[in-house]
Amino acid sequence: MLCCYADELKEGFYPWIDQVAPTLVPLLKFYFHEEVRKAAVSAVPERLRSAKLAVEKGIAQGRNETYVKQLSDFIVPALVEASHKEPDIEICANMLDALNECIQISGSLLDESQVRSIVEEIKQVITASSSRKKERAKAEDFEDEEGELLKEEDEQEEEVFDQVSN
């Protein structure tokens, strides 16, 4: 619901960003329920976009690009860390998509160390994905249903690589 509000309100969501961001970002690692993580992932870039638009349009009441940088410094590392620890392949792909959006929004606000961190974490995502694919390839004896599941997992892994390339 918060994602929808931020998406619809754009910069108008600005007054609630400081309350919502500290609540949503930890939910990226809420491993007890995947729907919670999915919602948090989809909402994170919208928060950053709302803040940037509010600053650009001058409605951020005394806040400037430094505010967007601080928010980016809070969101991006959490998203990067969560992406390589994510056990669900589909959510991992969503996290990489959200990371791509955040990078595009943050742009030049990211410093060299943050970019290096992002690259290192993405390397871990690639390594984990490759390992999972190799494990599935080793599984020779499987029935039709298992074969379909393995095919779906391979397609999800391809989505992860697509998001990495983006």
Which keywords apply here?
166 residues; mainly alpha; 7 helices; 77% helix
Helix content: over 70%
Sequence of secondary-structure elements: HHHHHHH
Q: Rg, please?
A: 18 Å
Distance N to C terminus: 27 Å
Oligomer: single chain
State the helix count: 7
Secondary structure tally: strands: 0
Overall structural domain count? 1
Strand content: under 5%
Question: Biggest β-sheet: count, sense, barrel?
Answer: none
Task: Describe the overall structure.
Helix 3 (34-56) packs parallel to helix 5 (89-106), helix 4 packs parallel to helix 6 (112-138) and helix 5 packs parallel to helix 7 (144-165). This protein has one domain. It has helices at residues 2-9, 17-24, 34-56, 65-85, 89-106, 112-138, 144-165. The radius of gyration is 18 Å and the shape is elongated. It has 166 residues and is an all-alpha fold. It has seven helices and no strands.
